[in-house]
Amino acid sequence: MGTSLNIEAIDLHYGAAQALRGVSVCAHPAKITAVLGRNGVGKSSLLRAIAGVHPVSRGEIRVGETPFGKTPPYARARHGLGYVPQGRDIFPLLSVKENLQTGFAPLKASERTIPDTVFELFPVLKDMLMRRGGDLSGGQQQQLAIGRALVTRPKVLILDEPTEGIQPSIIKDIGRALQFLRDELGMTILIVEQYLDFCREIADHIYIMDRGEIMHEGPASDLDLPEVKRHLMV
Ligand SMILES: Nc1ncnc2c1ncn2[C@@H]1O[C@H](COP(=O)(O)OP(=O)(O)OP(=O)(O)O)[C@@H](O)[C@H]1O
């Protein structure tokens, strides 16, 4: 079946500055949905709102039938939401294993195991299990951040610019991993990105965001490319 993620007309403010204006996005079950936009248009703010690390000032976010309202981040994780933040937020002095174990926090003691899928998707993490997070390359850290989000066995996974600053071979691995999670585990995936070609390759549906608003949307296979590129140009 799979679980949908619905963002319904949300506004988000930083003090007096409004970063999101009436943003509505639907991430369908077992599909990859991408929100594309330039630097500073509000993509990270959208994911922070979904994860519950910044409050919305209007609108609602639902995972399946559950409205999140003011639900705190750890409770959203228990409801099946996995979040891979921008910049990866790896603990540089903790080992790869310990970094993965930080994902245990919202879980009951009986659920505190690292799923095999993490090492099947990213074998490098198994090879480097005892190395410090800070010793990994940027791409390996991104894989670690995704692995950590998978520790809670999410139904819905949201990722903030997973290709940022990463070499092409690892971008391909990450793309394949996300397609596996969609196709084999039926996971619902929402990514925010600047990298159009990556999204056209792996996403099913694409939204374009500009200055805090959704300007355009369509199936990835049938995008109005001139319109999309116009919004992505600086
Ligand atoms: N903590 C904050 N306080 C005040 N303004 C903020 C804060 N975080 C973001 N902003 C502003 O909100 C707007 C949207 O930022 P956001 O980080 O969501 O954009 P983005 O599309 O993710 O960009 P990037 O790709 O650079 O992360 C920007 O104008 C930014 O300067």
UniProtKB/TrEMBL annotation:
UniProt superkingdom: Bacteria
Annotated GO biological process: L-amino acid transport
Gene3D superfamilies cross-referenced by the UniProt entry: P-loop containing nucleotide triphosphate hydrolases
Family from the record: Belongs to the ABC transporter superfamily.
GO molecular function: ATP binding; ATP hydrolysis activity; branched-chain amino acid transmembrane transporter activity
CDD domains: ABC_TM1139_LivF_branched (cd03224)
PROSITE patterns per record: ABC_TRANSPORTER_2
InterPro entries assigned to the protein according to its UniProt record, in alphabetical order: AAA+_ATPase, ABC_transporter-like_ATP-bd, ABC_transptr_urea_ATP-bd_UrtE, BCAA_Transport_ATP-bd_LivF, P-loop_NTPase
Domain ABC transporter: 5-234
Transmembrane parts of this sequence: none
One Pfam family per UniProt: ABC_tran
Keyword Transport found: yes
Signal peptide coordinates: none
Keyword list, A-Z: Amino-acid transport, ATP-binding, Nucleotide-binding, Transport
Record-linked SMART domains: AAA
Name this polypeptide is given: Urea ABC transporter ATPase protein UrtE
Species this protein is from: Nitratireductor basaltis
